[in-house]
Amino acid sequence: MKIVVDLDLCQGHAVCAAEAPEVFTVPRRGKVEILDTDPAPESRAAVMDAARYCPTRALSIIDGDDN
Ligand code: SF4
């Protein structure tokens, strides 16, 4: 899986970091930083939740062969 973020949409709510702190970090005033754009399969559920609950729908998950 690959994670793509649209930084024009991200408003720094940090829901993603709460769902998957090993993958997303958000500075106090800023936009999301993806720590791991190709996370391990164990992180998949948390990453999917992060994308689902992002208030601005800034995160997209692209599935590849490795999921
Ligand atoms: S939850 Fe969405 S809007 Fe909030 S920091 Fe993460 S990507 Fe940005």
Explain this structure:
With 67 residues, the chain is α+β, with helices and mostly antiparallel strands. The chain has a single domain (2-62), classed as Alpha-Beta Plaits (2-Layer Sandwich), CATH 3.30.70. It has two helices and four strands. It has helices at 15-19, 44-53; strands at 2-5, 24-25, 33-34, 59-62. The strands form two sheets. It has a two-stranded antiparallel sheet with strand order 1-4. The protein has a two-stranded antiparallel sheet with strand order 2-3. Strand 2 and strand 3 (33-34) form a beta hairpin. The longest helix has 10 residues, at 44-53. The chain is globular. The termini are close together. Bound molecules: iron/sulfur cluster. The site of iron/sulfur cluster has 17 residues, from helix 1.
Task: Determine the CATH topology.
Answer: Alpha-Beta Plaits
Q: Poorly predicted ranges (pLDDT <50, ≥5 residues)?
A: none
Tell me the fraction of residues in β-strands, as a range. Answer: 15-25%
**Span from first to last CA?**
6 Å
Coarse structural class: alpha+beta
What's the overall average pLDDT, rounded? 94
Question: What form results from the Cα inertia axes?
Answer: globular
CATH class: Alpha Beta
CATH architecture: 2-Layer Sandwich
How many beta-strand segments? Answer: 4
Summary keywords:
single chain, 67 residues, alpha+beta, Alpha-Beta Plaits, two-stranded antiparallel sheet, 2 helices, 22% helix, globular, binds iron/sulfur cluster
What is the topology?
Elements lengths: L1 E4 L9 H5 L4 E2 L7 E2 L9 H10 L5 E4 L5
Antiparallel strand pairs: 1-4, 2-3
The chain binds iron/sulfur cluster.
